[in-house]
Amino acid sequence: MYDFEFLLLQHTKFIKNRSIFMASKLTPRSTDYSKWYNELVVNADLAQHSDVKGCMIIKPYGYAIWEKMKDQLDRMFKETGHQNAYFPLFIPKSYLSKEADHVEGFAKECAVVTHYRLKTSEDGGVVVDPDAKLEEELIVRPTSETIIWNTYKGWIQSYRDLPILVNQWANVVRWEMRTRLFLRTTEFLWQEGHTAHATKEEAIEETHKMLDVYAEFAEKYMAIPVIKGVKTASERFAGAVDTLCIEAMMQDGKALQAGTSHFLGQNFAKAFDVKFAGKDGGMDYVWATSWGVSTRLMGALIMTHSDDQGLRLPPSLAPIHVAIVPIYKGEEQLEEIREKLDGLIQSLRAAGLVVKFDDDDTKKPGWKFAEYELKGVPVRLAVGQRDLSNNMIEVARRDTGEKVMVSMDEAAGQVQRILDEIQKNLFDDAFAHRAANSRKVESYAEFKEEIEKGGFLYAHWDGTAETEAKIKEDTKATIRCIPIDGEQEEGKCMVTGNPSSQRVIFARAY
Amino acid sequence: MYDFEFLLLQHTKFIKNRSIFMASKLTPRSTDYSKWYNELVVNADLAQHSDVKGCMIIKPYGYAIWEKMKDQLDRMFKETGHQNAYFPLFIPKSYLSKEADHVEGFAKECAVVTHYRLKTSEDGGVVVDPDAKLEEELIVRPTSETIIWNTYKGWIQSYRDLPILVNQWANVVRWEMRTRLFLRTTEFLWQEGHTAHATKEEAIEETHKMLDVYAEFAEKYMAIPVIKGVKTASERFAGAVDTLCIEAMMQDGKALQAGTSHFLGQNFAKAFDVKFAGKDGGMDYVWATSWGVSTRLMGALIMTHSDDQGLRLPPSLAPIHVAIVPIYKGEEQLEEIREKLDGLIQSLRAAGLVVKFDDDDTKKPGWKFAEYELKGVPVRLAVGQRDLSNNMIEVARRDTGEKVMVSMDEAAGQVQRILDEIQKNLFDDAFAHRAANSRKVESYAEFKEEIEKGGFLYAHWDGTAETEAKIKEDTKATIRCIPIDGEQEEGKCMVTGNPSSQRVIFARAY
User: Fold this and answer.
1) What distance in Å separates residue A201's CA from the closest CA in chain B?
2) Burial B96-108 (b: 16+ CB within 10 A, else e)
3) A298 in contact with B at a CB cutoff of 8 Å?
4) Are B114 and A114 a contacting pair at CB < 8 A?
5) Mean pLDDT, chain A, whole residue set
6) What value does the mean pLDDT of chain B take?
7) Residue of A57, A84, A121, A150 to mutate, interface with B, max B Cβ within 10 Å
8) Vertex A470: Cα angle to A464 and A475 (nearest 5)
9) What's the order of all strands across the beta sheet hosting A322-326?
10) Which of B192, B94, B88 lies closest to B140, judged by CA?
């Protein structure tokens, strides 16, 4: 259907450009999954390392995806009755040590502000002014339970002030020695919900409700199947009574904790002396939850769906849904294409889709095809002169790589159907991958063999921290969670033979 | 139209509650403007001081207003071709001193991170681990020009990489000794745009374009009239060639700088060695702009419109547009009101308005009236039994305090008209106030007298920093700006008598 001579010319250019691109193509996943990931994050313009150790720069394309995630999560938080607020970046050092477990968990990885002024040095540079030393050092928040509960103390007098359902979008800092873009960085962006309740039951209900919000977000928008579970004591948040989580499986079979929701009991209320007068007039400590997801979700999104050609983005979170590449010679042909496609573009945009008509004449169509593939744009349209006269357009879908010629009049409908299919297909792919890499193991010998193949291993465990630690030391596998919807099944711990009532999920993890 | 007996009962309750409220009513503006402001910010649940010196907590109601401002600004940035990105919180100390003027401006007010770990002390608390000292101290960003231009160096090779039109929403820290909620805090939230261009003309155009965006936002959404102008050298951003600003007048006649847009020339490109190959192959330094507004705008919003009863919010930025207070006895009457109002509420919501039907039975109608007044909800509806049977509803507008009885069937349309009127009326009020408090002065003697009355004084100035400094020392007034749209008028400096071609605006300022 193309003008063949012209197509040949384009194809030659395509090959030429393609080969330029090939030079910087990604390391295949099968060769080195970790290298593939790092290259993809950088080449697809998602993020890069900064000169500040462990801190990343989120580039516009990566940030646009994060923004879509943020907007959708924010909507879901508000629909479940939460409001946003903002608390200080700095936490007085003494606050951190008010909750005993909390300080254990976070003291080792804190950025500490000790001074509040610089002065010019003799060599023209700047030095820290020794006269500007803080009386009490400030910690850059690694999480905000302490500063928030110190504030809630002033907000809560009686049951009428409860519940408090507050969320904060913020940056936090946890000093990390080994970092990876999105997955583990010293500074990262996140949201942290902090709620206060009159009863234990209500707080537990909130903990589960927010876990459900996270699970729904992961599955419906990120197209990532997740398992909801409870963390073991050793994997619990420092200061929590119980930590719930959603766990996802990456393509290399490793687990990634994608979100956590903590039931904090009265731990922080006691540490900060937050009591309320109940309906009956009696005083009691307030019950608490906290829950968060971070830019780490970007890592999960990338590692769940992408392939050796680049990203595969679920349409729900794609900054660009449809990229249109016109194939033309000269301004006149371009104008003709533009005019002909105007109706299609209008109707796609009217359907709420972001459409990019790429008329950048410094780049060849082949280069553009590879670029949109790398960036995971779900649908790419291409149209040349011959197509135009036949009233046809080429529709290529990113997830399967399939291309079909479609009548111009049916293109809008077709594109929307394909986008729905892609959203579903990515989830199904990930679900099938997880199913294929999840299995029950019965003995520790089998476990040690199977864990080398990756994936989720469902095994019986005796519930002790000692056994858990031994397995971790022997195999580097950790208990990802005790699945909430897990089948109750009598069994014996694969290590000690002691009784167990339910299988737990083991995996190596990010 | 009310059931009088019932109304009397309500009125008694109202007075009773009102008097409770009265006990905590605001200091009138005329008594102490500054105290009124502080009380209003706290009582209207906008923000509060935290235990961390100079850092504020933005409470949910205040944050909801900031979110609306943020969303609208973000939309306007995107419509003008900008994308968001995210850069590190920390800046290596040495970066700050690469641009000579920049370091002068910011070194004095920096939070400095010197360590990255705490350890438990013998008394069970925590101390800074002396072994975890950073080789180079990190500065918590007071603004991000340095870290961003250090990054742009890697992004820019040729003219094809330009322009870069990037914005960041972030928290920044400038150590302040005297702070006021929203107006001057050690940590604040803001956006900072950082753009890179191939030509000087394009960068200057961008600087003006973003100033126009700020002015449009201030006038159309915040309902605050602003004057666009150029800062004098002494008021310029540290590192800029030119600083443009929008200046607003508060109710006490003081000026507030509401946004700035800087033409940075090639200063940062030179400091960070960012060159590009032009179309002709020659190398040149890149041209830059930066521009920002912050949570300080919240202060401007509050101080421009509010009165002794509380906030007056422009409907464009109000988290709740319409509050409905049902006046009833017993669940049955409440149900009846609810049913009767269902259609009205639906149609207001369908028009995109946020409607709160306040059926909280722990609070009396009078308390609610005062509360919505304090919080600046633009329209309050009240309905009792008698109204219901007459198919009428009371509509009260916050800006003028007017109340009218409206037929239920016309209420939706009426409310929407009133909201439009309020938006316009707040702007007109502020505009009239500014006009009434702006005047030309001819002599320095007159100036010194007039400045005590507050407001904007248009006077001739000889263009020297010396004269400017003398005026500031004598009167505490600064040159707010050289108005961009100012009339060209030959005159003589009121202090030195030297020639001047245009009046500049003097005022005392926040």
Assistant:
1) 23
2) bbbbeebbebbbb
3) no
4) yes
5) 94
6) 94
7) A57
8) 130
9) A355-357, A322-326, A379-383, A392-397, A403-407
10) B88
* Residue with tokens 């970046």, as numbered in its chain: A89
Distance between CA A285 and CA A198 in Å, rounded? 8
For residue B51, pLDDT beyond 60: yes
> Residue A24's pLDDT is what?
59
Position B248 pLDDT exceeds 70: yes
Nearest residue on chain B to A103, judged by CA atoms? B126
Helices A296-305, A60-79: crossing angle, 10 deg rounding? 110
CA distance A169 to B169: 11
Is-contact A245 A259, C-beta < 8 A? yes
Report all structural domains of chain A as residue ranges with CATH numbers, in order of start: 1-26+312-418 (3.40.50.800), 56-106+141-305 (3.30.930.10), 440-507 (3.30.110.30)
Contact B325, B369 (CB under 8 A): yes
Residue B24 pLDDT: 60
B140 and A92: CB-CB below 8 Å?
Answer: no
The yes-or-no verdict on residue B2 having pLDDT over 50 is: no
Instruction: Out of B63, B83, B110, name the one closest to residue A86 (CB).
Output: B63
Q: Band of the pLDDT at B16, cuts 50, 70, 90?
A: very low
Contact between B90 and A55 using a beta-carbon 8 Å cutoff: yes
Whether residue A208 contacts residue A202, with contact meaning beta carbons closer than 8 Å, is answered with no
Answer whether A228's CB lies under 8 Å from A211's CB: yes
What are the structure tokens assigned to B412, written together?
Answer: 């939706």
Confidence of residue A25 (pLDDT cuts 50, 70, 90): confident
Specify the amino acid at residue A223: A
Statement: residue B384 has pLDDT above 90: yes
Contacts by A447-450, CB closer than 8 A, 24 or more apart: A447/A471, A447/A475, A447/A477, A447/A494, A447/A506, A448/A474, A448/A475
pTM of the entire predicted model = 0.94
